[in-house]
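FORM 12-B: Structure-to-Sequence Request
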C-alpha cells in the first residue's frame, strides 16, 4: 500500500457537508452532523480531488460493519488514489453504522435494532438509523454522480462475490448502474427489482430513485477479514474508476452472470439449519437445499428451491428463528 499521498493531505473536520480540497490534493477528517440524534457520534471521511475535472464518486462501506473486507477495501482504495492521476472527486466514508462497529453487531444498529440497508434514503424524524441514513444520503450520496457501496458476508453469512444494482430510476440511470456493475468485475450481477415481500430501502435503490447510478458490491464471508476478497473489491473500485473515466487504463473485460430474479428463502421453523448446498452451486426447482432440525436431532422441515438458479449466499450459522433468512437463489 502506498500511503505517501495520504501523508500529504490536510486534516479538516466537517459538519453536515464535506467541503472539497483544492484540485490535485486530498483531505481527511471527522464528519459530524448537527442533528441532535447524531450529536454524540462522528464518522471518518476521506476526499481525493483530482488535478483535472471529472465525475464525483461516493464510496461507502460499513453499512454493515462486520463485513470487514469491504471496509478494508475502502480504506486501501481511498488511501492509494493519487490526486495527480485522478479526474474528478472520490468521497469515501468507510464506516457508516459506527455504533455497530466495536460491539461487532451483525446487520443492525444496536441503538434501535434497525438494518441501515433497509432505511435509505432515511428520515430526519425517525429513530437513530433513519436519521443516520438521511444524513449520510444527503451529505455523501446526493451530491455525487455515482455510488459504490461495498459489502460482504456478515458474521453469519457466506456468499459468492456479486454486485447488485436496482433498476428503479430513469432508464439512463438504470443503464449507467448496470454498466458500472459490469465494469466492477465480480462474477455475478444482480438486478434487484422491487417485488412483494422483497427488500427495500437499500443504498442503491435510494440512489437510483434520486438519479444517482449506484451499485452494492459484495465479497467476503462470515465476518472474516480475508485478503483475496479485499483485493477483489479494491480491484473492482479501480475498474469502476477507469470505467467512469476518472483513471487512465482499460477496464478488464468482464462477463458476469446476470441475475434477473433474486429470491430470499426463510426458515419454516425455529431450530438448527443444515444447508445441503454450497455458495455458487447451481440448483434445480424442487431440489432439497437444506433442512431445519430440532435439538433432539429430528427434522422439522425441509427447504426446497422455488426455481432453478445459483446459490448466492447462505446463512452460515446453524441457529435459526422461524422466518429467519437462510439462503438466496439467483435465477439467470
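FORM 12-B RESPONSE
SEQUENCE OUT:
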Amino acid at each position: 500500500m502506498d500511503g505517501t499521498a495520504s501523508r500529504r493531505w490536510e486534516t479538516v473536520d466537517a459538519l453536515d457537508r464535506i467541503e472539497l480540497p483544492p484540485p490535485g490534493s486530498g483531505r481527511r477528517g471527522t464528519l459530524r452532523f448537527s442533528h441532535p440524534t447524531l450529536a454524540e457520534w462522528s464518522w471518518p471521511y476521506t476526499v481525493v480531488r483530482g488535478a483535472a475535472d471529472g465525475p464525483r464518486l461516493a464510496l461507502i462501506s460499513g453499512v454493515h460493519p462486520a463485513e470487514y473486507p469491504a471496509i478494508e477495501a475502502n480504506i486501501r482504495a481511498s488511501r492509494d488514489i493519487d490526486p495527480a492521476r485522478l479526474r474528478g472527486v472520490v468521497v469515501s466514508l468507510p464506516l457508516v453504522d459506527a455504533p455497530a462497529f466495536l460491539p461487532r453487531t451483525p446487520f443492525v444498529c444496536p441503538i434501535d435494532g434497525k438494518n441501515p440497508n433497509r432505511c435509505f434514503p432515511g428520515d430526519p424524524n425517525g429513530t437513530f438509523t433513519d436519521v443516520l441514513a438521511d444524513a449520510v444520503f444527503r451529505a455523501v450520496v446526493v451530491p455525487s454522480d455515482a455510488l459504490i457501496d461495498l459489502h460482504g458476508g456478515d458474521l453469519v453469512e457466506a456468499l459468492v462475490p456479486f454486485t447488485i444494482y436496482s433498476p428503479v430510476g430513469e432508464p439512463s440511470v438504470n443503464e449507467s448502474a448496470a454498466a458500472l456493475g459490469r465494469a466492477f468485475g465480480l462474477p455475478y450481477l444482480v438486478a434487484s427489482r422491487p417485488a412483494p415481500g422483497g427488500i427495500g430501502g437499500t443504498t442503491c435503490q435510494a440512489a437510483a430513485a434520486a438519479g444517482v447510478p449506484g451499485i452494492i458490491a459484495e465479497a467476503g464471508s462470515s465476518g472474516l477479514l480475508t485478503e483475496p476478497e479485499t483485493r477483489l473489491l479494491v480491484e473492482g473500485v479501480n475498474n469502476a474508476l477507469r470505467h467512469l473515466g476518472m483513471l487512465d487504463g482499460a477496464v478488464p473485460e468482464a462477463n458476469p452472470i446476470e441475475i434477473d430474479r433474486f429470491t430470499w428463502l426463510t426458515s419454516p421453523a425455529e431450530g438448527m439449519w443444515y444447508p445441503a448446498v454450497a455458495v455458487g452451486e447451481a440448483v434445480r426447482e424442487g431440489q432439497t437445499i437444506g433442512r431445519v432440525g430440532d435439538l433432539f436431532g429430528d427434522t422439522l422441515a425441509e427447504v426446497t428451491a422455488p426455481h432453478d438458479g445459483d446459490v448466492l449466499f447462505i446463512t452460515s450459522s446453524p441457529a435459526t428463528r422461524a422466518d429467519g433468512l437462510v439462503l438466496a437463489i439467483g435465477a439467470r
